[in-house]
């Protein structure tokens, strides 16, 4: 799949510094490399890579004057193209791409050639965007293409075969291939690019977007450099392998990148993905202190604030971002979240729509818009929004889940099973889908399947702590009192071990059932303990008292009470066995025949 | 037996059996191809009456509709099409397009300005509301809506289109003229071609809404009526993906994709497409104001119903039931009787898989008539008839019911159901053992012209009913020993329904059965044995039965007995009476072949009772044959002979040739056996008659190549001639017997101990 290292042409001798080692022992060397690549990418108009390198370089301690790198020597070719390059770069910077390309035509130096091709590519992209507004008909919309791509591909592939492309050229070739949907070839070229020029973050990032699963990652032969660590951490986050990602990021922080806002934000996102809300929030707050004008990732931050219902903080964030730049996708998203939290769902939907106008491929907004429509009880619009989200990314589990919820609201439990199952396949570890599945099965009277779902939901670590109660009730319904009691015991155990003082509505139910269960089993001590607990709740107080009286009566009738001291809890040892969820589990095999 | 296929019960693109294209507003726009067609129309108007002959004009007019509706085609193809119908017009069209494309933008503008002239004047060339008129007006409207840059873009597109057409014709004319430069250019082009191979699939470019709708409805109706003419599953899917890429909101494409996936039995993709379709449909339903909330809720109900249908088609009956319950609940909540009606029919289809309760079905038919759903009603009647036929109701009642529903079909022009009804009659007649009637019905269906529009040159569609009728025809011919005719029919079937189409299984089974019967007649048991696997794959019950027969023929009695007992229990459970009787007959045969005819008698009586009860005349007469044979073995030939007189008539009238032969042979045997007690002159007379009958039997056996039986007949004849003292004839027969005996190895069964 990937080009083997032996056939990769060596990096041009112009940039001897760029062959980087894989360890982090020499941070100064790394800093030098970062500064160099930031300059190189800037010269070529690769702004995002330049920004990334500069940010990372900034996080490392400054170099003394003696260590500073002199700018790379200018070759004969570069000198020849100097004038054309300077002019074209100026045009490029003011986004006159065609003009830039015109003046660069015929230049031989690598830098000028790259800028030439890159301006042609960007010009095509820009025209494509303009065309979309002005196309001939509705069906043609999807057909508007970057016309320049094919020509670029032909030229670049010739150069590629002749081994005349440097790292940047390879990167551009890869981008062109990806835009033409030639994914396999693109991956090969990007891998080659990372071998030739490992410092260029853009190539790594493109690779991240093309790799869809862990297996693909395994088969790539990547260069052994310190950049690889950043790449792996990034892709683990993308592939939802959060623990591995966090591990990698921790390593990077340990070797000295602790001040990098990029790493901090990535860690925050990772915590968000595993729903460790408090940690993510604190990291984001820290990040905002360090870098108050940062807009990237702020949508994730706002999601967290939303989940915690922190109205004032969200409002502050929204106003702040709006002041910085109100025409950014992230800003629109934050404002949308803000309105949603204030229950102004129409306005929220409006802002999500705006976000989509700014970037139609911004996936999160479709899903969030779906949620808003759900709140407005506009189910058909919600379905539409979710479907759009799925079209952009089939792996968006929230959209599948949202679709499931929509149909559940429409009282179609069988119909929504399909959607929940899709969501479950994408997130086998997420208890919410499992509980939702279980509820649907319960409604369909498929109790065996429902039990499986609830049990699995508990096993993977239940977020809402409802699975056990539901499971217990199911057992109760099936008059499997033994299992029901065990579930209730586990439930209570869970709540107490959690230590949180949140009102659990089902606690009283659990105690009531347990009291009755022990009463039936003639375990008086346990029964009375539970009955006493019942008295602590309003709805079960009377029952608890009545039960206590009965117990007392029966005890007096029976033989002498053996122990006066009430046992704290009847907890069989087997139940407190380890219930830590396995890290990565396969999706539950519910019923083999249905897709 | 012709079964009413589930898929007929519901199809959202269809109301009362008619496929409709979705109409959601006409959206069209100008493309270079459309300009070329406009030029053609314009030229046609200009040439006037005299210049073009009447034949040419007629051909042109026929050409127009597909040009207006179809997808865009290249310029050279268009020229070719026009040239075929009218060469001189093609020339002038070519010149005008050339002028326009090589001229300036204003030529195109002028052209569109002039277009509307055709409507003006006291006697306009084009009527405003005619097909052509509508097309012209759409185009003019679409053109005037274009913005400045769009007009220019259209013009450059036209130039491109023209140049592509030119290049192609140049390439066609002088291929040998390839200078070095051109070769180079070509190489570059090839390189480009390699890169765009993926895109080449959609060489026709994006379809306009109208064109897309036309494409979808055309393919959908082809899938229903004549699968072989539709695109292959893979290419159809490619087209659909292409369509969806350009317009993801085009929900109908998802439904077609669902149908296409059903063709290849892909559960996952078809579920996905179906749900996607309804998600999309819900959105369009909500958007159109006229439907309002009603339309939205409606699609929800049908979504659940369709899901049930899907699961049922894939055999997930439990899932189907759950989905159906959901559909019923929602439909009940919103008082949608029509939807409930559909649900009820499906409930029957599902129930049919488990038990036979026709209460549901009767109810469904009544309700359907009440709500004015003739399609559903007569589909219900047909299902009911089918079920009643299996349940042994009298033929006249069934035929009455079919006649009534036929009235309904003709009234509403439900041609599909007419076909099914005739195919069903064929099957019922065969079930009752009336081969002549069955033959007649099958022929009637085949020589009938379809009411529906079908492709030119073909009178019928390739629907299931035709496959069923043809299969029956093949089997009927094979029964009469006309194997050449049968294989001819099968060859036709193979052509009409290629092996991977959805009704191919029908003829495959039929073909295997005929081959099996031939192999058995021929005594090639190993060959028959190898066919059993194929039959089992297509129909497991039939397969087991045939396996037992082969085992029996190979004298593996205990294995055969075991199999038959198992089969008997299973068939009794699923109430497959036809098979039960056949199995009973085989069991009886097993008994007397293992020399215990007394045990066979009650089994045979049971079979006789069953076949009389269910009016399966063919099986009944076969049972009588067996009974008579048992009596013969038990030594009461007179009794057997009188029994045979009862059965011989229907066998000779409707039975298979093999059965006719067997019956005659048996008659002869009985005659000989009973003649033993007669006085000599009478005895001679009886023996002579027996020899006559044997000759007849021999002829029948010869027709179906039953060498073993012929051998037995010849042996028997030789013995009779010997008794009568006719040495010459005896020797002839003996020689024949010797020849046959050398050819066929004897299996150690006493020669005469065989029906």
TrEMBL record, chain A:
Pathway the protein takes part in: Protein modification; protein ubiquitination
Gene Ontology biological process terms, A to Z: anaphase-promoting complex-dependent catabolic process; cell division; mitotic metaphase chromosome alignment; positive regulation of mitotic metaphase/anaphase transition; protein branched polyubiquitination; protein K11-linked ubiquitination; protein K48-linked ubiquitination
Pfam families: ANAPC8, TPR_11, TPR_8
Gene Ontology CC terms, in alphabetical order: anaphase-promoting complex
TPR repeats: 329-362, 363-396
Cdc23 domain span: 30-268
Chain segments annotated as coiled-coil in the UniProt record: none
This protein's UniProt keywords: Acetylation, Cell cycle, Cell division, Isopeptide bond, Mitosis, Phosphoprotein, Repeat, TPR repeat, Ubl conjugation, Ubl conjugation pathway
Family: Belongs to the APC8/CDC23 family.
Assembly and binders: The mammalian APC/C is composed at least of 14 distinct subunits ANAPC1, ANAPC2, CDC27/APC3, ANAPC4, ANAPC5, CDC16/APC6, ANAPC7, CDC23/APC8, ANAPC10, ANAPC11, CDC26/APC12, ANAPC13, ANAPC15 and ANAPC16 that assemble into a complex of at least 19 chains with a combined molecular mass of around 1.2 MDa; APC/C interacts with FZR1 and FBXO5. Interacts with FBXO43; the interaction is direct.
Function in brief: Component of the anaphase promoting complex/cyclosome (APC/C), a cell cycle-regulated E3 ubiquitin ligase that controls progression through mitosis and the G1 phase of the cell cycle. The APC/C complex acts by mediating ubiquitination and subsequent degradation of target proteins: it mainly mediates the formation of 'Lys-11'-linked polyubiquitin chains and, to a lower extent, the formation of 'Lys-48'- and 'Lys-63'-linked polyubiquitin chains. The APC/C complex catalyzes assembly of branched 'Lys-11'-/'Lys-48'-linked branched ubiquitin chains on target proteins.
Name this polypeptide is given: Cell division cycle protein 23 homolog
Organism annotation: Panthera leo
Gene: CDC23
From TrEMBL, chain B:
Role description: Component of the anaphase promoting complex/cyclosome (APC/C), a cell cycle-regulated E3 ubiquitin ligase that controls progression through mitosis and the G1 phase of the cell cycle. The APC/C complex acts by mediating ubiquitination and subsequent degradation of target proteins: it mainly mediates the formation of 'Lys-11'-linked polyubiquitin chains and, to a lower extent, the formation of 'Lys-48'- and 'Lys-63'-linked polyubiquitin chains. The APC/C complex catalyzes assembly of branched 'Lys-11'-/'Lys-48'-linked branched ubiquitin chains on target proteins.
UniProt family annotation: Belongs to the APC5 family.
Residues annotated as domain Anaphase-promoting complex subunit: 254-353, 458-490
Subcellular location: Cytoplasm, Cytoskeleton, Spindle; Nucleus
InterPro entries: Apc5, Apc5_dom, Apc5_N, TPR-like_helical_dom_sf, TPR_rpt
GO BP term (any one): positive regulation of mitotic metaphase/anaphase transition
Recorded metabolic or biological pathway in which this protein acts: Protein modification; protein ubiquitination
Record-level GO cellular component terms: anaphase-promoting complex; spindle
Span of domain Anaphase-promoting complex subunit 5 N-terminal: 30-168
Subunit structure: The mammalian APC/C is composed at least of 14 distinct subunits ANAPC1, ANAPC2, CDC27/APC3, ANAPC4, ANAPC5, CDC16/APC6, ANAPC7, CDC23/APC8, ANAPC10, ANAPC11, CDC26/APC12, ANAPC13, ANAPC15 and ANAPC16 that assemble into a complex of at least 19 chains with a combined molecular mass of around 1.2 MDa; APC/C interacts with FZR1 and FBXO5.
Segments forming a coiled coil: none
Pfam families (UniProt xref): ANAPC5 (PF12862), Apc5_N (PF21371)
Keywords: Cell cycle, Cell division, Cytoplasm, Cytoskeleton, Mitosis, Nucleus, Phosphoprotein, Repeat, TPR repeat, Ubl conjugation pathway
Keyword Oxidoreductase tagged: no
Region (Disordered): 172-192
Superkingdom of this protein's organism: Eukaryota
Name by which UniProt lists this protein: Anaphase-promoting complex subunit 5
């Amino acid at each position: 799949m990937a080009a083997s290292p032996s056939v990769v042409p060596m990096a041009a001798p112009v940039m001897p510094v760029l062959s980087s080692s894989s360890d982090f022992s020499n941070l100064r060397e790394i800093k030098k490399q970062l500064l160099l690549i930031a300059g190189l990418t800037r010269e070529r108009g690769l702004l995002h890579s330049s920004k990334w390198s500069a940010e990372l370089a900034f996080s490392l301690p400054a170099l003394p004057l003696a260590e500073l790198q002199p700018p790379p020597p200018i070759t004969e070719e570069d000198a020849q193209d100097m004038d054309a390059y300077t002019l074209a770069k100026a045009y490029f910077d003011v986004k006159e791409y065609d003009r830039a390309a015109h003046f660069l035509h015929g230049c031989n130096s690598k830098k000028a050639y790259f800028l030439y091709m890159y301006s042609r590519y960007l010009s095509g992209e820009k025209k494509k965007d303009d065309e979309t507004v002005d196309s001939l008909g509705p069906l043609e919309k999807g057909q508007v293409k970057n016309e320049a791509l094919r020509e670029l591909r032909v030229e670049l592939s010739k150069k590629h075969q002749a081994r005349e492309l440097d790292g940047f050229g390879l990167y551009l070739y890869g981008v062109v291939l990806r835009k033409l949907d030639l994914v396999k070839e693109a991956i090969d070229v990007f891998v080659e690019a990372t071998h030739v020029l490992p410092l260029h973050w853009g190539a790594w990032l493109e690779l991240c977007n093309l790799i869809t699963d862990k297996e693909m990652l395994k088969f790539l032969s990547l260069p052994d450099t310190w950049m690889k660590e950043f790449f792996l951490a990034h892709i683990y986050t993308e592939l939802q392998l959060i623990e591995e990602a966090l591990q990698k990021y921790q390593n990077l922080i340990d070797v000295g990148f602790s001040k990098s806002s990029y790493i901090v934000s990535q860690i925050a996102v990772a915590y968000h993905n595993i729903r460790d809300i408090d940690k993510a929030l604190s990291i984001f707050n820290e990040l905002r202190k360090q870098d108050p004008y940062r807009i990237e990732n702020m949508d994730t931050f706002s999601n967290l604030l939303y989940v915690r219902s922190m109205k004032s903080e969200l409002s502050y964030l929204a106003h702040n971002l709006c002041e910085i730049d109100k025409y950014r996708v992230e800003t629109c998203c934050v404002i949308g979240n803000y309105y949603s939290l204030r229950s102004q769902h129409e306005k929220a939907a409006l802002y999500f729509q705006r976000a989509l106008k700014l970037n139609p491929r911004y996936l999160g907004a479709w899903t969030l818009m779906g949620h808003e429509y759900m709140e407005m009880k506009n189910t058909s619009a919600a379905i539409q929004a979710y479907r759009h989200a799925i079209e952009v990314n089939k792996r968006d589990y929230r959209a599948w889940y949202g679709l499931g919820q929509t149909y559940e609201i429409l009282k179609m439990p069988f119909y929504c099973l399909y959607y929940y199952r899709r969501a479950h396949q994408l997130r086998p570890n997420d208890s919410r889908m499992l509980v939702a599945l279980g509820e649907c099965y319960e409604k369909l009277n498929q109790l065996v399947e429902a039990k499986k779902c609830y049990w699995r939901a508990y096993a993977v670590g239940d977020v809402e702590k409802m699975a056990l109660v539901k499971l217990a009730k199911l057992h109760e319904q099936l008059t499997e009192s033994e299992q029901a009691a065990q579930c209730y015991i586990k439930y209570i155990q869970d709540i107490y071990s959690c230590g949180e003082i949140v009102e659990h509505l089902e606690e009283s139910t659990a105690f009531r059932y347990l009291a009755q269960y022990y009463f039936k089993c003639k375990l008086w001590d346990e029964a009375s303990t539970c009955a006493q607990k019942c008295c602590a709740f309003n709805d079960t107080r009377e029952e608890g008292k009545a039960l206590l009286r009965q117990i007392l009566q029966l005890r007096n009738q029976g033989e002498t009470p053996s122990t006066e001291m009430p046992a704290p809890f009847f907890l069989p040892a087997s139940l407190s066995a380890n219930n830590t969820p396995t890290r990565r589990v396969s999706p539950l095999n519910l019923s083999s025949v249905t897709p | 037996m012709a079964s009413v296929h589930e898929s007929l019960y519901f199809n959202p693109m269809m109301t009362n059996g008619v496929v409709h294209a979705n109409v959601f507003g006409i959206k069209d726009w100008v493309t270079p191809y459309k300009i070329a067609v406009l030029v053609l129309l314009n030229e046609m108007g200009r040439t006037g009456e005299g210049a073009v002959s009447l034949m040419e004009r007629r051909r042109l007019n026929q050409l127009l509709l597909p040009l207006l509706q179809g997808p865009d085609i290249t310029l050279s193809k268009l020229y070719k099409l026009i040239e075929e119908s009218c060469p001189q017009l093609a020339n002038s069209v070519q010149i005008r397009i050339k002028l326009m494309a090589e001229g300036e933008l204003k030529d195109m503008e002028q052209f569109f300005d002039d277009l509307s002239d055709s409507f003006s004047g006291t006697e306009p060339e084009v009527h405003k509301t005619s097909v052509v008129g509508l097309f012209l007006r759409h185009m003019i409207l679409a053109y005037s809506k274009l913005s400045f840059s769009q007009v220019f873009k259209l013009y450059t597109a036209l130039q491109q289109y023209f140049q592509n057409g030119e290049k192609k014709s140049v390439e066609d004319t002088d291929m040998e003229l390839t200078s070095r430069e051109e070769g180079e250019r070509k190489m570059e082009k090839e390189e480009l071609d390699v890169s765009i191979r993926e895109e080449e699939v959609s060489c026709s470019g994006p379809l306009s809404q109208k064109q897309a709708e036309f494409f979808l409805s055309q393919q959908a109706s082809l899938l229903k009526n004549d699968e072989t003419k539709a695109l292959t599953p893979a290419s159809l899917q490619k087209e659909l993906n292409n369509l969806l890429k350009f317009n993801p909101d085009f929900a109908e494409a998802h439904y077609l994709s669902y149908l296409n996936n059903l063709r290849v039995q892909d559960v996952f993709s078809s579920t996905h497409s179906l749900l996607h379709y309804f998600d999309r449909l819900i959105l369009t339903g909500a958007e159109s104001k006229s439907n309002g909330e009603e339309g939205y809720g409606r699609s929800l109900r049908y979504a659940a119903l369709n899901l049930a249908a899907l699961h049922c088609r894939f055999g997930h009956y439990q899932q189907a039931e759950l989905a159906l319950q959901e559909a019923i609940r929602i439909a009940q909540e919103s008082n949608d009787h029509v939807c409930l009606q559909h649900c009820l029919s499906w409930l029957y289809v599902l129930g049919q898989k488990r038990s036979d309760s026709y209460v549901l079905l009767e109810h469904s038919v009544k309700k359907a008539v009440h709500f004015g759903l003739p399609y559903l009603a007569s589909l219900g009647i047909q299902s009911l008839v089918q079920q009643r036929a299996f349940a042994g109701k009298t033929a006249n009642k069934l035929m009455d019911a079919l006649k009534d529903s036929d009235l309904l079909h003709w009234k509403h022009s439900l041609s599909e159901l007419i076909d099914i009804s005739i195919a069903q009659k064929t099957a019922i007649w065969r079930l009752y053992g009336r081969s002549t009637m069955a033959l007649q019905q099958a022929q009637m269906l085949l020589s009938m012209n379809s009411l529906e529009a079908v492709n030119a040159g073909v009178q019928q569609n390739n629907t299931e009913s035709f496959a069923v009728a043809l299969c029956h025809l093949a089997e009927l011919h094979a029964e009469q020993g006309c194997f050449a005719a049968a294989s001819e029919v099968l060859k036709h079937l193979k052509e009409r329904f290629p092996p991977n189409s959805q009704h191919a299984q029908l003829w495959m089974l039929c073909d295997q059965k005929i081959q099996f019967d031939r192999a058995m007649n021929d005594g090639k048991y190993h060959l028959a044995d190898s066919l059993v696997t194929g039959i089992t794959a297509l129909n497991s019950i039939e397969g087991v039965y045939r396996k037992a027969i082969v085992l029996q023929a190979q004298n593996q009695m205990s294995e055969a007995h075991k199999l038959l007992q198992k089969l008997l229990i299973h068939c009794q459970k699923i109430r497959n009476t036809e098979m039960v009787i056949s199995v009973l007959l085989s069991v009886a045969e097993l008994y007397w072949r293992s020399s215990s005819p007394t045990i066979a008698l009650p089994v045979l009586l049971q079979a006789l009772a069953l076949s009389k009860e269910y009016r399966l005349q063919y099986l009944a007469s076969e049972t009588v044959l067996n009974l008579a044979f048992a009596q013969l073995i038990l030594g009461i030939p007179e009794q057997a002979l009188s029994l045979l007189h009862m059965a011989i008539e229907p066998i000779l009238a409707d039975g298979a040739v093999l059965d006719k032969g067997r019956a005659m042979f048996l008659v002869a045997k009985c005659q000989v056996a009973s003649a033993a007690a007669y006085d000599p002159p009478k005895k001679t007379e009886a023996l002579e008659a027996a020899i006559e009958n044997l000759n007849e039997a021999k002829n029948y056996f010869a027709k179906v190549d039953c060498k073993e039986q012929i051998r037995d007949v010849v042996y028997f004849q030789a013995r009779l001639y010997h008794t009568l003292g006719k040495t010459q004839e005896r020797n002839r027969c003996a020689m024949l017997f010797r020849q046959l005996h050398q050819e066929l190895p004897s299996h150690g069964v006493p020669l005469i101990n065989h029906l």
